[in-house]
Every structure is written in C-alpha cells, then in structure tokens.
Specification:
The complex is a heterodimer of chains A (157) and B (106).
Chain A (H helix, E strand, L loop, with lengths): L2 H4 L14 H14 L8 H14 L3 E3 L2 E2 L2 E3 L7 E11 L9 E9 L4 H15 L2 H9 L3 H13 L4
Chain B lengths: L11 E7 L8 H11 L5 E5 L4 E3 L3 H7 L6 E7 L3 H14 L12
Antiparallel strand pairs in B: 1-4, 2-3, 2-4
Helix pairs in contact in B: 1-3
The chains are: A alpha/beta (157), B alpha+beta (106).
Chain lengths: 157, 106
C-alpha cells in the first residue's frame, strides 16, 4: 500500500501551530475536515478518540516521530494526514525526545488488514534516518507530497 | 580475563507462532511484544520469511504489521533464550495479545 493511497496531501500541515500533543491532534483532525475527508459533525468525537488512544500508549516511538491513530467507522478506508513542528512537541516518546513529524491515521474498524498495510508502509520508511531527515526538510505541502511519492516509487532507498 | 578463555555457550531458542487475534500485529500488540521481549537477557529476532527484525525494537516490530493468520519465526540467543521464546509464544498464541479472535472463531 502506497502513501498516495491513503495520505490526504491537501490536508498536510507543514508548520503545526499547537505546541502540545492534544492540540496537534485536534489540528490534524481539523485539517482532514477542512479538506472534506471527514464530516465536521465527527470532528470532536474523532479528536477525542485519537487522544484517548494516545493516552493508553504513546505512539511516539522515538526518533522524533509519532503515529497517533484510531479505528473509527466514519471512514471507509484508511485515511492519514501529515503535520510537522519545528519546535518539537512532547509526546511522551519512548526515547523521551520531542516529536517533530506526526502522521495521524484513521482506519475502518472492520478491515484490520488495510490498517496493517498502511502501518507497514509508514514504519518501513519512518525507520530510515534519510527519510526522516528529508521529511524534516519539507516546508510546503508540495514538498511533502513529492517526498512521499518518491518513497512510494523507491521503497528500498 | 585470560586470552584463549572459552566464551560462554550461547543458548538459543526458536519457535514459530501464528498471529491469532483478529486485528493482527498492530501497534499495541507490537508494543506488548517488545515490552515482554525486552525483559529477557537475550537477543530476539522475528522473521516473517521476507524480513528479519529486532524483537526489541518497536519501530521494527510495528513494520512487520503481521495480519491474523500470519506465521512468524521467533529466535532468541542468550542466557534466557528458552524462557523468552516460551513467554513470547504464550503472549502471541495463548493470550493473543489480550484481544479477540476473528468473528466466527470466538
């Protein structure tokens, strides 16, 4: 499964405004609503659900990245949005370092395999230092899109 | 330590496990796996036949993203290797990461 199959590029936030974890999550969910990918009536509920999941166990797995996510019937297929913060956010990460790149994911509850395919792709690239470095360098939504599409075409770099 | 001293015999353990919970090896089970594996004095490697990952790395274990029904080979090397593989097998196949089996199998 490629990034372009599930990432909403129009919703990308190159410079997140919030400085705290829950604010970031709200900002990213809001971006998906504004991009027309989520109904605005569900915005508060989904934001709360992502935060609840994040409270159960941090998705900040170190190296400055976090993958907050939730399974919710409002989506038919996996949907993701990317945001980045130059200042860094406290996500209670495993390595106790700030998070700079956030990929928020919403998956349909009745299709666990789709969620896993998306996660596989996300983690395959996020664990490469080069990819994380290029990600940090993206300043515009177009730059993020170009990088992710290039990663899709070159899964082994 | 004297030169030429025998190195400690490395104990090994290996088991093939099948993912049985409906949602597969998503991030939460992956974390449970890593948390458990990290408690043992040994190296842990997990393989899906295509890729080998470090069983103590959440980033790598999450990348496996094994679906329900997938078989994984768990290998451990070190003093607690045998205890480790048995504990991990129990987490994956018996406790099923404390998650439900697929509908129709409950």
């Amino acid at each position: 499964m490629k990034f372009e199959d599930f990432v909403c590029f129009e919703a990308t936030i190159p410079e997140l405004q919030s400085t705290d974890r829950d604010g970031i999550i709200a900002e990213l969910v809001s971006a998906l609503v504004q991009a027309g990918k989520l109904p605005s009536a569900s915005e508060a509920e989904i934001t709360k659900a992502v935060i609840k999941r994040e409270n159960e166990a941090s998705t900040g797995m170190g190296k400055g990245v976090a993958v907050p996510h939730v399974k919710h019937p409002v989506v038919d297929d996996v949907l993701a949005v990317i945001g980045q913060s130059d200042t860094g956010i406290n996500f209670s990460s495993l390595d106790e370092q700030p998070v700079y790149s956030v990929i928020l994911l919403i998956s349909p509850p009745d299709n666990p395999d789709r969620h896993l395919r998306a996660m596989e792709n996300i983690f395959k690239h996020l664990q490469k230092e080069k990819f994380r470095k290029f990600l940090r360098q993206c300043q515009t939504p177009e730059a993020f899109e170009d990088l992710l599409k290039e990663a899709d075409e070159n899964p082994s770099w | 330590m004297q030169a030429g001293e025998e190195t400690l015999e490395k104990l090994v353990g290996e088991v093939t496990v099948e993912i049985k919970n409906a949602d597969g090896l998503h991030m939460r089970p992956a974390m449970q796996f890593v948390d458990l594996a990290s408690q043992f004095d040994c190296e842990v490697t997990v393989s899906n036949g295509k890729t080998d990952v470090d069983g103590k790395s959440i980033m790598q274990m999450s990348m496996l993203a094994a679906t329900c029904g997938t078989r994984l080979k768990v290998r451990a090397q070190g003093p607690e290797a045998e205890t480790a593989v048995e504990a991990l097998r129990e987490l994956v196949e018996v406790r099923m990461f404390d998650e439900p089996a697929p509908e129709g199998q409950r």
